Amino acid sequence: MNEFELIQRYFWRQTVVRQDVAIAIGDDAAVIDIPAGYQLVVSTDVLVEGVHFPSDAAAQAIGHKALAVNLSDMAAMGAEPAWFTLNLSLPDVDENWLEAFCRGMFDLAGEYNVQLIGGDTVKGPRTIGIQINGLVPTGQALTRSGAASGDYIYVTGTLGDAALALAHHQGKLTLTEDEQQKVSSRLHTPEPRVRIGQGLRGIANSAIDISDGLAADLGHILEMSKVGARLNMPDIPLSSVYRTHFEVAGGYATAVGFGDDYELCITVPGDKTDKLESIGLELGCRFYLIGEIESEAGIRWITADGERWEPPSHGYSHFR
Fold first, then answer.
1. I need a surface site. Which of 43, 71, 297, 305 has the fewest CB within 10 A?
2. Both ends of the chain: CA-CA distance in Å?
3. pTM score of the predicted model
């Protein structure tokens, strides 16, 4: 099977066909229509075997996660995801792997009405690169640079479960079968907070998705907004599974420093908290209040005893 036969067999047969796509797969480039009153939002992520997913990970889960992490970027910007391209490097043509990979990717694409409009395939180490494009009403994109002193800091869900699942996979701790079922999806098939991100337009002053860990990603908001933060560590949401293994998992350090959570971290002014609560009820999302934005630079991590704490790691970095 050559490259073009592979593309025709596995990537032309998607179910999502958007009316704003004038020319999709098959030409040298795609052509799309951008509606008036909207801005284009563009993001990209690369997943490398052995770095972003284990070599023995299920192909369907890899397909899901490859698109999910890009959808999470759209969520953090408050954007409606619309189209994506796929660059795929494969060591060989494994038809069973490709079938499962496409099933995971296209099932998630169908959930969010996102159409594959092009890409490239090459022979090499298994690597998946996706560029995603979305739309946001002009001037309404959420950014990292809008946090202001006095804003409240929230996250959209528990942190650290993906880290637990990976630690179990690597033999660093042992989870029961029931515990594995509860946390494994957080690592392998995360659910992006796309609709919540759109609901936060006009409410949140700033937003970011937690991919590299709360310490690192909140740090990006603080740096871009030129502010600091005070975080109350007992308020950081942890699942019952994480709390059971709290000490062996490294306490709060793993929960705030590992990443792969794909929750949103947002800052909200005090006069918008009622609207935030309404959005949460409407969309079935609990927002966890974990701290407050301050004018002094840096993050002050405060324990239940009122003492200062410093995480041993400030988030995942490829080159550190």
1. 305
2. 40
3. 0.94
